Amino acid sequence: MRKEIYLDAPNVGLLEKEYLCKSIDSTFVSTFGKFVPEFEKGFAKYLRINNAVSTQSGTAAIHMALRELQIGKGDEVIVPVSTFVATVNPVVYVGACPVFVDVEPATWNMSPLDIKKKITKKTKAIIPVHLYGNPCNMDEIMHIAQSHGLRVIEDAAESLGAKYNGKFTGTFGDMGCFSFNGNKIITTGGGGMVVGSDAKKIAHIKLVINQANDGCGEYYHPEIGYNYRMTNLEAVLGLAQMTKLKTFLAKKRKFNAIYRKELKKINMISFQEELNGANSSHWLTCIIFNKDIDILKLQKRLKDKGIQTRRTFKPLVEFPPYVSYNKGKYENSYNIYSKGLCLPGSTLNNEEEINYVCRTLKKEIAYIVR
User: Fold this and answer.
1) Helices first, then strands: H and E counts in the chain
2) 152: burial class by Cβ within 10 Å (0-12, 13-18, 19+)?
3) Contact call for residues 83 and 201 (beta carbons, < 8 A)
């Protein structure tokens, strides 16, 4: 049977089984128990911050961050048009209006210049997305936000471990949101995390995600809450994965280096680029073709050889819920979508398999463009 070369499959094994057994043996498998706070504490320590609260998903994390910062009806939130839809759906959940901006052609991250053009009296927040693990220009974005009195919620779902000027992504803004979905750098099966410098706000989120149960033992709920809690089974899986995070990041950096070395001589290929002072997590290594190519045909031929790939994100204004929010041309985002491709980055792969991807990609490109 042919082995698949995985795009973003999770890397779990015996250690995770061992940790899961700890949770089962303790009988703490749901939301009550020691492993959730232990995971939150360890995660905060890794990021060199003090406050973190786990959630049921990265989407829930963004939703709670928006709610806690009192973003709501009539407010505008600036978001990149090139991102996963989960970045933007929570903006609509709270009744606010997403305002889309284009991305920069080199980094593929939201353009500070376009942010400035889209700010109005209704603008209340900016959600930078560190796309595919590549840090945004947080110096410029924070300067813009502070100049206009705007909140910043970082979508760091894909960038755990990435740094900008020596500081971890997710720790620049008012709040940072992470995802532990099965395809992310570490996984809890599902799950997410909100971090922030304001301890009271993080503590309030912790209350709200537990149906706003005040913990007095009488099921008293002083406000509307949500069932967004992480379980101990998920948290203990996260604890196991955190012990491997350094290894995972090193492997992804190595994969990225191989791709760049082996594909650099192909004139029609360029890579998503890092800013000076930025260190990507390289959640996925993505390329863009500098000439028209049949991406779907290329993907099919690679798939036939066991190589998983993925298109880059389609601009969100193409989706029915967001067509009416289309207020620009977004030329860079459309160009990246039409010519971009995400290559295998799962840490289940090894270096020889990444080299095989490179050799195969060279052959298939030559076949398609001949």
Assistant:
1) 12, 14
2) buried
3) no
- Percent of the chain beyond pLDDT 70? 99
Read off the pTM.
0.95
| Residue whose C-alpha is closest to residue 298's, from 346, 370, 367 | 367
For residue range 65-113, list pLDDT tens digits in order: 999 999 999 999 999 999 999 999 999 999 999 999 999 999 999 999 9
Label residue 326 left, alpha or beta by phi (over 0 means left) and psi (-120 to 50 means alpha): beta
Contacts of 325 (CB under 8 A, 6+ apart): 97, 98, 99, 100, 317
User: CA distances (Å), 28 to each of 34, 64, 149, in order?
Assistant: 8, 25, 43
The catalytic residue positions are: 184
Helix (H) or strand (E) holding 270: strand 269-271
Tokens coding 370: 């001949």
What pLDDT shows up at residue 1?
Answer: 42
- Say how far apart CA 75 and CA 134 lie, in whole Å: 28
Instruction: Report how far residue 53's alpha carbon sits from residue 185's, in angstroms, rounded to the nearest whole number.
Output: 18
